[in-house]
Design a protein that fits this description.
Strand 8 and strand 9 form a beta hairpin. The chain has one domain. It is an alpha+beta fold. The chain has a 12-stranded mixed beta sheet with strand order 1-29-20-19-24-23-25-28-21-22-13-10, covered by helices on one side. A 9-stranded mixed beta sheet has the order 7-6-15-14-8-9-4-5-16, with helices on one face. The two termini are about 15 Å apart.
């Protein structure tokens, strides 16, 4: 009962002013963690802790106290309203807006260390066993149209660790994002991701002797030993060694803590993990690894047969203003007002078509909508599709609405309502 009360307030806070945090400008050091490393980051979207903490009670306006209210309906049926942990291997800190999940150690064939996480699989039994997300769509991530495999292969070593055949990530680049000129801050004038995958790197892997089971296993750190990473068990992370969205990493405890990003799915506030993108600009904005191989994933199929993707709808030019309860969009985010509050398609408990591989379908309000202040906050896929059908929204630069060809690897972690 008490937990439901708190999280209901957290969920409702997504609809209130200033809930998604602030932007910090940093140059030459990681100002958020106080670590003077060579990384350069000019944009971040941490959650605003005071706003997320919230004070609204479900009993507001009622004649009975909150102690009379029962547990969340989602405790009875996860499809009903209420908070629900989707990535069950994780522990979510709603105040800090982070998730802590198991950290795995694997190796390349030449012995280099591969620190990775497991978030999704196409096998329901394995998903239930490990507390990770089930995505049947991953069955269809095989080869690109030119025959290039879209996954890594691996085998089990003598100690039960995974030995990867290919795919590396370089975490040494400086992440830089410089917004475009006002009022159209998107696209940024400069966008350099802080980590880049090799041309044969994919977050998805299969065992060579059991290719039917697929795992989403993004690399979080590469070719660095446990002793060095254990310095960051309590934070103050050197993002020249690990993914930019890592808050803590602790091989001793076999855990990693990652930032969560506020979003919506079918009207419900949600939190996802931003890990990778096929597009360097998007990777830079979100703090992801840029993964060129993901650009070969077939897009535009949505829920058609053999589709490995689900759709995600970034709003470009929603309303601005850090204290505006209708604030939303990439322009607002790049202006430093908070997260873009992207709209997701299906997630577990809401739909059967979830995939961690999101096909970005950007939506732009037309000038008439902007002039009349119709460009308020949207929280559901079919709201957007309806507005597109009515002519209020288009694709980028006034072009046709649809797939941008960009793929993001963003596993869902938590549903707030």
């Amino acid at each position: 009962m008490g937990i439901f009360t708190i999280i209901m307030a957290l969920g409702l806070a997504f609809y209130l002013p200033g809930v998604v945090g602030h932007s910090a400008t940093r140059s030459g050091s990681d100002g958020e963690n106080g670590n003077n490393n060579p990384k350069t980051t000019t944009l971040s979207f941490p959650c605003n802790e005071p706003a997320l903490a919230g004070t609204t009670l479900a009993s507001t306006g009622a004649k009975v106290p909150i102690s009379y209210f029962g547990p969340a309906p989602s405790n009875v049926d996860p499809t009903l309203v209420g908070p629900f942990l989707l990535l069950k291997s994780g522990t979510v800190d709603l105040k800090a807006c982070t998730v802590t999940i198991p950290l795995y150690l694997g190796h390349m064939k030449d012995g280099r260390t591969v620190w990775y996480v497991l978030t999704d699989t196409n096998d329901k039994g394995t998903a239930d066993l490990l507390g990770i997300l089930f995505s049947p769509k991953l069955n269809y991530l095989n080869a690109a149209q030119d025959g290039t495999p879209l996954y890594r292969t691996a085998s089990l070593g003598p100690n039960g660790d995974v030995i990867f055949d290919q795919g590396t990530v370089d975490f040494s680049p400086n992440r830089v994002v410089v917004p475009g000129p006002a009022p159209n801050f998107f696209p940024p004038t400069t966008a350099t991701p802080g980590s880049v995958g090799s041309k044969d790197y994919s977050p998805i892997f299969r065992f060579s002797n059991n290719p039917g089971v697929v795992f989403n296993a993004p690399i979080i750190a590469f070719n660095v030993d446990a002793t060095e990473l254990n310095q960051f068990c309590n934070g103050n992370v050197d993002h020249g060694l690990v993914l930019d969205n890592v808050v803590k990493i602790c091989p001793d405890q076999k855990t990693v803590t990652l930032k969560l990003v506020p979003s919506f799915s079918f009207g419900r506030p949600t939190l996802y993990i931003a890990i990778e993108s096929s597009n360097p600009m998007i990777a830079a904005i979100e703090g992801d690894t840029s993964v060129p191989l993901l650009s070969k994933v077939t897009t535009g199929l949505d829920d058609g047969a053999f589709s490995p993707i689900e759709r995600l709808f970034p709003i470009v030019n929603g309303q601005m203003g850090i204290n505006n309860p209708s604030r939303q969009g990439l322009d607002s985010a790049l202006a430093g007002e908070g997260a873009p509050l992207t709209v997701l398609g299906g997630i577990p408990t809401d739909a059967t078509d979830y995939s961690p591989l999101w096909d970005l379908n950007p939506a732009v309000w037309n000038q008439t909508a902007v002039n009349n202040h119709f460009n308020g906050r949207l929280t559901g896929e079919f709201e957007i599709l309806g507005l597109v059908a009515q002519g209020w929204m288009t694709g980028l630069n006034g072009g046709p609405f649809g797939s941008s060809g960009i793929i993001n690897n963003c596993p869902i972690a938590f549903r707030l309502l």
